Amino acid sequence: MVIVSRDDYDFTYESLESLRGKTVGVAEGWGYPDDFQNADFFTKDVAFDLKQSLQKLIRGRINLAIVEEFASRYAISQSFKDAVDTLKYSEISLQTNDLHVAFTRNHPGSEEIKNRFNAALAAMKADGSFQKILAFHGVLSADN
Fold this sequence. Notes:
2 domains, 15% strand, globular, 5 helices, 5-stranded mixed sheet, D-Maltodextrin-Binding Protein, domain 2
């Protein structure tokens, strides 16, 4: 989870204290770190979902938004194409979460499915096709 801001807003995230006095967009139902949830020195503007929070940010109704970076980049590339180059993401994360894919152990071929999945993912990362897919969907720039 990172902080996204408009590029015309002078802001650099260094710690929660950086949010003091700001209006920060959050999406209803998302899991935010306890220290963020408990902080009372900035205003949390609750949106129905990520898209609504990003729309508020783009229109200047909030200063910042707390987002999952890949989800945000994808949502912006799909719904706010004109804003893709007008937003910036913090270099420091508010929180980092691992992403896991689960396979049921009840399936007779689950171990083979898991191994084939992991091998295919490793091959895609090695040949660059994984990064191309992310870039195609607006999650990474084509340069990454």
